[in-house]
# Entry
Amino acid sequence: MKIDLKASESLELPFHTVVSLNERLAWLINLRWISIIALLFCIPIADKMLGFNIGFNEITNLAVILLVINILYFFIARYFQFKNEYQELAFLELQILIDLLVISFMIHYSGGIGNPFYYLYLVQVILSGIIFPGKALPYINAFAAALLLTIWTILEHVIMFDRYLLRSEPASLALIITSLIAFYIINFAGIYIINTFMNGYRSLKRIIDQKNVQLEQSIKDRSRTFRFAAHELKSPLIAIQSTLEVVKSLFSEDLRKEVKDMVLKAEKRSSQVIDMIKEMITVTQYNLGMEKPVFENVDFDEWLFGIVSHHKVYANKKNLELVYNHLSFSLNINIDVNGYEKVVSNLVSNGLRYTPSGGKVIVEPFVSDYSYGLVVKDTGIGIPKEDMEKIFEEFYRSKNAREAEQIGTGLGLNLVKEIVYLYEGEISVKSEIGKGSEFKVEFPLKEKQSGNEYAEELKQSVNL
Ligand code: ADP
# Structure
């Protein structure tokens, strides 16, 4: 079902949106499937086990009619192009009214007001209180329910007296009047409470939605400013770095050792800051939706190995052992290579950055029947217990990390988490101070893969 989104703007948010109406439509139809099944299941029980003398054949016919009607609704909801929300609301209202009518017949065939199930009307009234915005339709439906029950009761009492009786005795006039009054009170009090609650809930939801939009806007604005600042900083820093390189290469001979060391130090620092700025630009680009996903079908192991290999130079420079444990089989999978690369690179580079020289970082992909992912283990500084959750927040850096590695933004893991959640994955971390950390990223496999049978085989380990 496709509805012009512009048309939806003419109605008030949040319960008049195309999505919420479609959901409600589908919900109502699904609820009806359940009640039809329950009805068809209960009829033989009431007939055989409880021995009621009521119109079982008529009720079965009604259930079948309801089934046919619901199939019709299902196809209308799926294939009919509603022009606007008003048409869709009318379709929902029609369903409620027809349901009320079907319930009337059902109650009549099962003993009328003598059958306590006449309170089924209330289910429809409650549903309409939840589904429809405003006051009009919920109250119209509550009124329709009360009217139908009254008319049927009068008809049964005056014209079709005693036809279908749940109990051996027909209900007395006093009982009928009391039952009707009880129904009116519960019906109207019920719809008043539900309607008041739902309208309050709707306005609250509207406010929350508006605040959310504002919040998202301000996050975007902040990201824009951030990105702008990062861009502005990048060019002068690159200029400083190039100047230092020129000084180093042209005047290296003439410089005193201390000056030369200072130039080298400054060059190193500026290149670290440039890396940091590049990371800030990447993160803000992602937050602003400027980095589009690039879906590709890849051999997961091969692809991952390629990404991890990019970190070999840094690992060697820092005298770290970077180990890759190959999968013993191939898993071809369609992934957002752009997003996933950021996840892997951030985890591996963190492992390398927060592990002192002589340590080890191991990257290990895994596949099970319903998931796949990777584990990045290191023998580094570890993460303090109290920071385990905080490290996924923007700009958060642990004290020990700040001491070990001055350069860092605290943005990487936040981005990793966002991307992992975007693809319905999970990220977890285990760590021990001074011993190392282990990050595990796991994504669901849409189709069952025969991973386990291979998982037993030996994995090939490669030192990069
Ligand atoms: P950055 O590394 O730039 O500080 P991240 O968002 O990538 O930012 O990481 C946030 C923090 O999480 C780090 O500052 C550090 O405290 C902690 N952290 C992440 N990975 C590791 C790791 N492998 N070992 C120890 N601490 C880590």
Summary: Confidence is low (pLDDT under 50) at residues 1-14, 450-458. The pocket of adenosine-5'-diphosphate is lined by residues 346, 350-351, 354, 378, 380-383, 391, 396-398, 401, 408-414, 437 (CB under 6 Å). Strands lie at 295-299, 321-325, 332-336, 360-367, 371-378, 426-432, 436-444, 461-463.
